[in-house]
Design brief:
Two copies of one chain form a homodimer. Chain A is an alpha/beta fold. Helix content of chain A is 30%, strand content 24%. Chain A has a nine-stranded mixed sheet, sandwiched between helices.
Chain lengths: 541, 541
């Protein structure tokens, strides 16, 4: 049915343009050309210089035949070239593949093959692993050495270095305009504790929107100074290369994530914002007092990856910092759920505030849908804070899919929702709270037991430093909870009876661990406890 | 050419969703259901209530057959129903047509016909003009009376009142999901000083993006309290119904824009943000001291429509308020250009700061392109602060086009840019500064003379209250500048010789007015000087 609104009101060049976060850079460079864009040790350069360098990267790559359909991979810590790749690579139309620097050579080699790497940028610190990975790979990418003045010197595995590549750029080389916001722009591999990692594909529209979403969730105002504690290989630094550039902020780079370099950088540049997993918060909270005294007042910290424990929240907030808890996965461009804070919660006691803040919360405004759903019936669970379902996402900040994996793509996006594999409840105020990963849930006598809930009870014991609870196969119950406990320094292990009765104060009987094991817990290099190893140990007990 | 990134990574329900600002309401209502959404005199209701009421409006309209392809018009001041229409109407798929309350009945009748009005919501204050307009119109819309408790009572021209319409809503009526972000959602008529007004059509994508753009340009943080001084009929209140809802803010409604009710509302609700033309700023600056003392500290004011004069900026900032100067037109969703402020400008003397702030500035991040272009060659002017060109816009916050006016649409969007008709220069720092409307420029002996520049010189004279300069036809020069001047109370008119030599200190010789006329200047009800009337007078001199 034709009506006057559906005729002669078409999309034309003047009124329709693909959304892309790459455009934030020329936008900010035009307004604040002289403002510091990047600080890295003694190096400091402006937004005009950053734009010039990113365009040089794009032009040099284009001249070497890189464009739509190509993949440019990078293995590097949070150095300026890594930030530049977030603009220069998608400017060409190619896909940026930022590789986890903690992976072994075999996995990196797999990623180079699977992602069809055409160009590989390598920081000298990772020259060895990259060399070995290239040896195992069938790809023969152009390898470029990133000569970071603050990194190891005199290591070169590539055919040229990064500055030489940039110097090749001919200003006459045209940078193509993006024609489709659905075009892929990034490829990020999930960590995949078992099996090969999956390649998550992002598009320009989603990255544009989640960069904006970060800004809203954090209540960010123009001109932040942002410290790069969060790895850029992690969901493209949770989209912050684009968010900070959108806000005309200063990117403070950092090679090493440890208390002293973090705090010295915070102080030297009067940093206003930083991100990190709870382990990074713990680093700050447990730093020596004379270091902690240097933390600039009003520092805003976004955390995700796990709910921050109450003691950590208290510790960090006592430093005058403010924590925003967010939640997401690689498949949803990093965080796109946040624990939106209510003013009236400020008056509550710390334990209450910590419990409220530990909840994952509500969707970013750019996320169309977030719900906790029974994956069998696809019906939302009641908002009772008790019924467990699977966290599901829908909207423009959900990935295109998994590269060369149509089955996994279809399964994960089935029924109009992205199935996260995380198990949660929905509270009466619509805030979601993660209870477990699907694979971490313990099913004992037909009852679901949240390993996180049992761990929470154990963490309350004064001797417990860290706790991880996994399923132990059991002939009678199917599974029972098995607790692995790392004690505080100097603390003695309580007896099983004592610890059981301690837990009984906090847990229903069927949730009580049947087995306690003491010792250091196996952790990934990001500080995540490796539950799959503990499950194997529990099985062998 | 097929590659792995272009296969099996398709748009599906989980990962692709039309952008619409209507979604900000359920989003905020889910997070802050109990927060005050609307304050209107003694009336106050929450986000949950606002959502319920907007959905009721949508359902009642849908049940009456309203949906995509229909038009719902409204003539009302800034009352709660006007805000609700900004969500409830587009929820149905229909277009919201908010009509300027200052128009005469003939023009309103024209708009009802041209916009193909199906439903008309009328505030009692405008019952007479609406009645008369309906009499002149060929449309027979469903007419709904808005019974505002703070408006005139006992006037009814419709078939039912608004609350009765809402009461009709059946919760079972399904509100359709938007399937296309390019779908029209609003129809706003330009003021058109001559001839019939043109109907500018907005789509959901553009309104979503400009609502976000407002937030960035203003550095807005969550939870503002916003006073509705800016008419909602003006470019949908510059998209602020959606911006404030996105930010979970409180909408403080206001029927009358005058110093006392504004300041009393600011004080009563500790308002944080308001918008208005410079005339509204002048109202505040020239209010009695005891009233001014009530203005809450840190009030943020966005102004557009004309560059705020230095004295007004000084007056308002001395009240502790902060002014953000923006610029736009109906065709670009209201403001989408802003004078982004540089910290280092704060140290400059007031005159410098006022001159910097009077510039229109730089694009919102959601506007893809803004430039000053020679309309003949379509080449950008140099950034010399001197060469005049036409301001042009491109991107997603440019209108779909003019309704039922393909010629005007094509002309205005020709060459990949929206041609604004405003003439400006581009400064070396990329900030644009409007010099005139195309039709206001004076061409004398082949030289362009900016009427704004000549007016600026006249405004510096101590006796001048207001000045408007237009072209007077001249046999020798083609045109010469003719100055119409309104004197300050009690001031005497200077001699033409004295005023000419005063102007010579500020203007090049060829720009000097050749004619001076004293008397009150004709103004629109929004305070804009009606230059077309002055041009007629100048011609008749």
């Amino acid at each position: 049915m034709s009506n006057p609104f559906s005729t002669n009101l078409d999309k034309v060049a003047a009124n329709h343009m693909p959304l892309t976060p790459v455009g934030f850079l020329p936008h900010t460079a035009a307004i604040f050309p002289d403002r510091d864009a990047v600080i890295h040790g003694a190096l400091r350069y402006s937004y005009q210089a950053l734009l010039d360098r990113c365009e040089a990267l794009a032009r040099a790559l284009i001249a070497r035949g890189i464009g739509a359909g190509n993949t440019v991979s990078i293995i590097a810590p949070n150095v300026p070239a890594h930030l530049e790749a977030h603009f220069g690579v998608p400017m060409t139309g190619a896909v940026l593949n930022s590789i986890n620097i903690r992976l072994d050579a075999a996995t990196v080699g797999y990623i180079l093959d699977h992602g069809e790497c055409d160009v590989l940028l390598v920081d000298a610190q990772f020259a060895d692993v990259a060399s070995e990975a290239l040896g195992k790979s069938e790809r023969q990418p152009l390898v470029i050495d990133l000569d970071d003045s603050l990194g190891p010197q005199g290591v070169a595995i590539g055919s040229m270095n990064y500055e030489a590549l940039l110097a090749e750029a001919d200003p006459a080389t045209e940078i193509p305009a993006l024609t489709d916001e659905w075009q892929p722009m990034a490829l990020n591999y999930t960590s995949g504790t078992t099996g090969n990692p999956k390649g998550v594909v992002y598009h320009h529209r989603g990255a544009y929107l989640n960069a904006i979403g970060n800004s809203f969730a954090w209540g960010m105002t123009p001109g932040p100074t942002y410290l790069w504690t969060l790895p850029m290989f992690h969901c493209n630094g949770w989209c912050f290369p684009w968010t900070i550039t959108l806000q005309g902020g200063t990117h403070v780079c950092l090679r090493e994530v440890a208390a002293e370099p973090i705090i010295e950088s915070l102080a030297a540049h009067q940093v206003t914002h930083m991100c990190g997993a709870p382990i990074v918060l713990s680093m700050l909270a447990s730093a020596p007092d004379e270091l902690k005294a240097k933390i600039p007042p009003g520092l805003k910290i976004m955390t995700a990856g796990a709910a921050p424990p109450a003691a950590v929240i208290a510790g960090v907030e006592s430093l005058g910092a403010e924590i925003t808890h967010t939640y997401g996965l690689t498949e949803v461009y990093g965080p796109c759920v946040y624990c939106a804070w209510h003013e009236e919660w400020n008056g509550r006691p710390l334990a209450d505030r910590a419990a409220l803040k530990a909840r994952q919360g509500v969707p970013y405004p750019v996320l169309a849908g977030l719900d906790v759903i029974d994956p069998e019936t696809m019906q939302p669970v009641p908002t009772d804070g008790e019924t467990i379902g699977e966290v599901m996402f829908r909207g423009n900040v959900v990935m295109k899919g998994y590269l060369k994996n149509p089955d996994a793509t279809r399964e994960s996006l089935e029924g109009g929702w992205f199935h996260s594999g995380d198990l949660a409840v929905k509270h009466p105020d619509n805030y979601i709270e993660i209870k477990d990963r699907s694979k971490d849930i313990i099913i004992s006598g037909g009852e679901n037991i949240s390993s996180i809930e049992v761990e929470g009870a154990l963490y309350k014991h004064e001797s417990v430093m860290a706790a991880a609870v996994v399923a132990k196969p059991d002939d009678k119950w199917g599974e029972t909870p098995c607790a692995f406990i790392e004690l505080k320094q100097g603390a003695e292990a309580p007896s099983d009876e004592d610890l059981t009765s301690f837990c009984r104060e906090h847990l229903a009987g069927f949730k009580l661990p049947k087995t306690f094991v003491y010792g250091e817990l196996p952790k990934t290099s990001t500080g995540k406890i490796q539950k799959f190893l503990l499950r194997e140990r529990a099985k062998a007990l």
